[in-house]
């Protein structure tokens, strides 16, 4: 990893993969085909892209039971404990409706209503992501969403990873479909005979999934188009180089375009972490990916003061931020922009990925300047409530009519004034 001074930084932003023209065209064709042929199109695309023929894409009880048999019992208990932690955290986010009665009898308020149906896309194939099931489904359930449909691509044998199935079963998800890619997004958005349409689609995926989510947005809601993962670590000379290096590499191994950045005021730590990253890379199973990540998008930024270091973090606005200093809560007060903030030596980023409770679906690529982690509010709607009293109308109808006419909207003004004629009768 290269060591830079703050004035040598250009940008750590990476363009979100918008795909090639061929990929975008292919996604549009897939979506159109699913809209036209429904389940028949899903079967064809599953054969083409996943190499398996499925008569029925919906997962049955027998498959769930088999998944439990394949899972270590202690690991199942770990999953249950993680789910409980995540649910407990998100329960504290829940909003409630409110009403305010004013002296003139007018009632104003806000009504909270959960989205009816949510589709959750879980990446699959050769990989297994039970954590994605938890992080996308649990906040929807806490919000009160009645129906959750989950899609994930089947493996070569036409099966799904046991961990994913067990995670879904722990949460009570009873709609699980072995469908992946852009075709899954299309099915969730527009429906087939087997899969009823949803109102919002959440969850990560490859470029085809991202492009499909872009394409269906407007007909349904989506969570976000996330870029490659990233971590920034704000550290002083109390941090341990081997631990900082390990945490940087925890994100570098995700993707060659992931970004891992150390921001420090310690020259000793900068040099020690640089050497430690190189040493740990040599034994990392995903060395090639992680090495390219740290070479292309990684850096150690040496600042002259903690204030400059804090400003640097706010400029980066990282997805994950670890604060490993002698007084991390002092730095917390200065941090404005970060998706998730991990404080202290024992709060390494993977703890948030899997177990602590906060959501790991986070804004990337600097969007933490204006975006938040996936949360319960992403699965509700807010309706404004207005019950205007006669007294309030009498006191304000002339003002409102004048305001309407200021904008040239005579019918608006007359609508407010029409009550006057009725009252004078």
Plain-language structure description:
The structure is a single chain. By secondary structure, this protein is α/β, with parallel strands linked by helices. The chain has 3 domains: 3-13 and 228-356, Nitrogenase molybdenum iron protein domain (Rossmann fold); 21-222, Nitrogenase molybdenum iron protein domain (Rossmann fold, 3-Layer(aba) Sandwich), CATH 3.40.50; 388-424, no CATH class. It has 16 helices and 14 strands. The strands form 3 sheets. It has a 6-stranded parallel beta sheet, sandwiched between helices. The protein has a 5-stranded parallel beta sheet with strand order 6-5-4-7-8, sandwiched between helices. The protein has a 3-stranded antiparallel beta sheet with strand order 2-3-14, with no helix packed on it.
Write a short abstract of this structure.
The protein has 425 residues and is α/β, with parallel strands linked by helices. It is 46% helix and 16% strand.
What proportion strand?
Answer: 15-25%
Could you give a short account of the major beta sheet?
6 strands, parallel
CATH level-4 homologous superfamily of the largest domain: Nitrogenase molybdenum iron protein domain
Side by side, the strands of the main sheet go: 1-11-10-9-12-13
Looking at the overall shape, the CATH architecture of the largest domain is 3-Layer(aba) Sandwich
